[in-house]
Amino acid sequence: MTHLTPIDIPAWVMDQPLPGEVRLWVNAARERIQAFQDRWDRPQIEQFVASDYELVYQTLAWIEQSQLAPGRRFLEWGCGFAVVCCLAAKLDFDVFGIEAEAVLIEEGRRTVTELQQPVELFEGNFLPPDSEWLADDPTLPSLGHPVPSAYGEIGMEIDDFAIVFAYPWPGEEDFLADVFARYAAPGALLLQFCGPYDLRLWRKGGRGALA
Ligand SMILES: C[S@@+](CC[C@H](N)C(=O)[O-])C[C@H]1O[C@@H](n2cnc3c(N)ncnc32)[C@H](O)[C@@H]1O
């Protein structure tokens, strides 16, 4: 398996001030997400849980200021309401999001429209075809989506992206890291939100250059 090199995220990143507009976006998104999750008249999407958008923004801003990414193309695996996608677009990344659940893609499109961000969303599977064998547990939640892989429709592969962001279900961190290690370009970054105050960043192998 290709090597992933961990990169320490400095603790001061979480003390960095947020732009007022980002704060407004995040608060409005949280209200919509709460209302979505409170609805009783349709099945809950149990796999959707929002990450810590403030911390993700602060970390992406640090990645961008430190020029850690080998390019501008950003992909969110399982983008839900597409809030992280919009935050990455605000930092001038070229942003794509993939989400398996149709109802969430609809909510994500609403976020993108309301915030007027140049984000492209795709309904489909973020796992590349034939990557499921990398999982040692066949019951992992991200394996269960009966939708085709989205890369054909995007017209790009994982190795076209400089940064991938994911919020894995607990216990899936290693599987998603293995998928990234196998399919991403050398030098690309993987950022995972793994729970409160727990963001983890890796680079695949050595530092490369991507468009
Ligand atoms: C924990 S939620 C995180 C949502 C979003 N990234 C955020 O931070 O707010 C994980 C999301 O990934 C989606 N998902 C899980 N496995 C997937 C797969 N194989 N392909 C596409 N989406 C998937 C779920 O439907 C869910 O919306």
Question: How much is the radius of gyration in Å?
Answer: 16 Å
Number of domains: 1
Average pLDDT reading: 93
Characterize the largest beta sheet: strand count, sense, and whether it forms a barrel. 7 strands, mixed
The name of the CATH superfamily reads Vaccinia Virus protein VP39
The level of helicity is 25-40%
Protein structure class? alpha/beta
Count of DSSP-assigned helices:
6
Describe this structure in words.
The protein is of the alpha/beta class and 211 residues long. The protein has a single domain, classed as Rossmann fold (3-Layer(aba) Sandwich). It is built from six helices and seven strands; from the N terminus they run βααβαβαβαβαββ. Strands 1-7-6-5-2-3-4 form a seven-stranded mixed β-sheet, with helices on both faces. The two termini are 25 Å apart. It binds S-adenosylmethionine (SAM). S-adenosylmethionine is lined by residues 47-51, 76, 78-81, 83-84, 98-101, 104, 125-127, 142, 145, 167.
Give the helix/strand layout.
Layout: E1 4-7, H1 20-38, H2 53-65, E2 73-77, H3 83-90, E3 94-99, H4 102-115, E4 119-123, H5 151-154, E5 163-166, H6 173-183, E6 189-193, E7 199-204
Parallel strand pairs: 2-3, 2-5, 3-4, 5-6
Antiparallel strand pairs: 1-7, 6-7
Helix pairs in contact: 2-3
